[in-house]
From TrEMBL:
Species per Swiss-Prot/TrEMBL record: Aquilegia coerulea (Rocky mountain columbine)
Signal peptide: none
Subcellular location(s) of the protein: Membrane
One Pfam family it belongs to: PTR2
Cellular component GO terms held in the UniProt record: membrane
Family note: Belongs to the major facilitator superfamily. Proton-dependent oligopeptide transporter (POT/PTR) (TC 2.A.17) family.
GO MF terms held by the record: transmembrane transporter activity
Keyword Transmembrane: yes
Protein name: Major facilitator superfamily (MFS) profile domain-containing protein
Amino acid sequence: MSGEKMEGNQTSSNVQRRKGGLRTMPFIFANEVSEKLAVVGFSANMVSYLTEELHLPLTKAANTLTNFGGTASLTPLIGAFIADSFAGRFWTITVASIIYLIGMISLTASAVLPSMRPPPCEENQVCQVANSSQLAILYVSLLLTSIGSGGIRPCVVSFGADQFDGPDKKQKTRTWKFFNWYYFGMGVSILVAVTVIVYVQDNVGWGWGLGIPTIAMFLSIITFALGYRLYQNMDPVGSPFTRLIQVIVAASKKRKLPMVSDPNLLYENEELDAGISTTGKLLHSKQFSFLDKAAIITDEDDPKSPNLWRLNTVHRVEELKSVIRMGPIWAAGIVLITAYVQQGTFSLRQAKTMNRHLTKSFEIPAGSMTVFTMVFMLSTITLYDRLLIRIARHYTGLDRGITFIQRMGIGFAISILATLVSGFVETKRRNAAIAYGLVDKPHSIIPISVFWLVPQYGLHGIAEAFMSIGHLEFFYDQAPESMRSTGAALFWTSIAVGNYFSTFLVSIIHKYTAKPGRTDWLDSNLNKGKLEYFYWLITALQTINLVYYLICARFYTMKPIQLRQKEEEPEGVELAQRV
């Protein structure tokens, strides 16, 4: 990211105060809500589409879903690089939204045109699986939406937080609240997707089921562009990754030099760092001291016009240290995502085998079961923001109630309970199938209420309200200011790796448990499988992961920064060190 630069007169604080703030939120949230409406409206019911419309086997459908989710969460690294390096967040979001729209139009066309799908299954005949051409159209459409997501996801959240991170101190204190609002708005859009959109897909058709979010995406691009004059924009100042590499190269070249006795002797150049340290200067920290050698001045260096491949400032060295410090916390989120994504794969298949009738004439679509995740998540966010923070603030003295490190830890613990419960509920569901003689009838409905699945969906929602928001806030807060889009992208890459790890886990378990003489844990006929074993394996992995996280959290060091006051004090006055 870059220095803060207002369009118009930079020296006028009155002009600055007219930029950003709450009034920009409808324009920004419109884009994020539409993207979530589109992606969730399809992915929530994607297993049904792949198995029932394209006739793919369950394991292949599940892996397609997690691979798609992983790719869509990995491309934000590219989008963040483009935004932070040269394009800026506004233009990255705009162009990415257009690419996303093209993918959605293609996806809708594939659902409408019969030639893009295999023929419907006929009774007592083997279903024809989608051919390579039909799958290619599907994958190209998904790839375009993944690329579009890569520009939207890391930039929308950072762009929104930037509106509260300007020189107006009253706005700046609201930054941590923005993440609750952001996730709440995202949750509402997901709630609409898993109810209205999924209902349309199941009862009206996939054409309208995908067409509605496509239209919403088109309207959101128009809405987002209309707010252009209100936005507080950050100018890009070149590739942050280049700066990180320069520090590594410089430290490597000077690896044989002895360390200086006093950190104050390390290279500082406020003029050089002006564009990447407008909110505050990073201070020297003792961790990873070998990197400090990149800031040692030798006779070969010219401090007035440094060769950045040999000499870097303390601020730039600390940028790299901040990124390294975030790594272990980033990795802790992977296993949680692996557990969470099962709601859209195996949990959905569980729901399809259970009694989903609310009344004799109305049946809950299986893809809409995640509505309980969203309801519990939204309720938890509201309760947290309106009550729990006030109670915690009384004891901790923190404006946000608890730290984002503590918030993530609570989410990890609740997620373990959610997966453990999933295993016990699956045991009950399968025992009911055995009792009613339905083991060999995978398409028959077991007379057991689908509401038995509500606890696992609800607990996952509560866990997400704590862990995911805390994780997102952590990356924004701890990333160097010039890399905040990249920080948000790290949040999405943990989701990507979690999806890929789920694919790996499913493939390995299917491979080694599907052998002759063994019970395939993940058999397409869940009544014959041992899905509960899969859930309990993930529970064990999550428990180990929680211990790992607690160790990482215990030794984590917040980035040391000296903030600058811009509103009441003269420009450039340094205030306080944040530890």
